[in-house]
Write a structure and sequence with these properties.
Layout lengths: L19 H12 L5 H12 L1 H8 L6 H15 L12 H4 E5 L2 H7 L6 E3 L14 E13 L1 H4 L9 E8 L1 H8 L4 E4 L1 H13 L3 E7 L5 E8 L5 H7 L5 E2 L3 E5 L9 H5 L5 E4 L2 E4 L9 H4 L6 E5 L9 H11 L2
Parallel strand pairs: 1-8
Antiparallel strand pairs: 1-6, 2-3, 3-4, 3-5, 4-7, 6-7, 9-12, 10-11
Length: 322
């Protein structure tokens, strides 16, 4: 099912040849410095079969243990260079998300011109996959969430993963026509707002195999999201937004709504007022939008890193290179 918004004109596909989006994916790989054959194979498999990939990664697929062992065996033999040289690189460094409050997430789907932002280690605190390179950022596809789809009783709706820019959007639309659709920026913003109302947090995702850069915004619930569950078990797949929640005690009625909705279990009631566990708080802002008394707000915490606010980053880059 396709929307009328920003749908690229499909090229003719000849039988037996790669699809146009696969060829575009390969061209982007050739243009990306340091992008290896291993990266291309990994990226293609991930984007072509995301439901199997995520189901195996989260352990939800019945053959996950077997496929995991087979994949590891092939990786060690086909790509032996990925050994001691990358011993300090963890899985979280190669595939991770940055928590973005609603306003920052809205900015990411509202960019109208191509963007190239690199060296973002202050914003994206991982060794790999920390660039924002947007080609045709108005090309946006919404995809049924692979994490939710892998669960026996998933949260609904399923179509909440936003794939932003090229070559990612066209690749997903072309290979998953029954699970995706083209949407406009305004439709993407509405999805973000609706998910915020459901108490779900927004994460900008980066992956080494996706050319080491930002490619999607996921709207995540703690019961389905593989990254959030990894974070809960000590794997640092998510970086804080750079903010923490702040409580105005004199406005708080201890209704408990914020604690009930917090996806990171960072809020509790103590002596008739909401209390924030600053270590656990990721600054997603879900509690702020659900507090009817206006007792909560997000405040900057430098110890949590720099925010991913793309309009400010674009402005900073322009001023540094007039």
């Amino acid at each position: 099912m396709s929307s009328r918004h920003h749908v690229p004109t499909p090229n003719r596909r000849w039988p037996g040849l790669p699809t146009p989006s696969t060829r575009a994916f390969l061209r982007e790989a050739r243009r990306t410095p340091g992008y290896s054959l291993r990266d291309w194979v990994h990226g293609y498999v991930y984007a072509r079969w995301p439901y199997l990939y995520i189901a195996v990664a989260t352990g939800e697929h019945p053959v996950a243990p077997v496929l995991g062992r087979i994949g590891g065996w092939f990786a060690r033999r086909l790509f032996p260079e990925v050994t001691s040289a990358s011993a300090s690189i963890t899985g979280a460094d190669t595939y991770h998300g940055k928590v973005v409050p609603l306003e920052a997430a809205t900015q990411l789907v509202s960019v109208s011109e191509d963007v190239r932002l690199t060296d973002l280690e202050q914003v994206i605190p991982y060794a790999l996959a920390r660039d924002i390179v947007l080609h045709h950022p108005d090309h946006i596809v919404v995809l049924e969430c692979p994490c939710r789809a892998a669960r026996a009783k998933p949260c609904l709706p399923l179509d909440v993963c936003l794939i932003v820019g090229e070559p990612f959007a066209t690749f997903v639309a072309e290979h998953h026509p029954r699970r995706s659709r083209w949407i406009s920026s305004s439709e993407a913003i509405e999805i973000l707002r609706s998910e915020d109302e459901r108490g779900h947090s927004h994460h900008a995702f980066f992956k080494d195999a996706m050319f080491g850069r930002f490619y999607a915004i996921c709207n995540c619930c703690s019961c389905c999201c593989g990254a959030m569950q990894a974070w809960q078990h000590g794997t640092p797949m998510l970086a804080s937004s750079g903010y923490i929640s702040h409580v105005e005690a004199d406005q708080c009625t201890a209704c408990g709504s914020c604690a009930d909705v917090c996806p990171f279990d960072a809020l509790s009631m103590n002596d008739g007022v909401a209390c924030v566990d600053e270590d656990a708080c990721m600054g997603c802002g879900v509690c702020v939008s659900h507090c009817e008394r206006g007792a909560l707000s997000l405040v900057r915490d430098p110890s949590k890193g720099e925010p991913l606010e793309i309009q400010r980053l674009i402005a900073d880059a322009a001023s540094a290179n007039p």
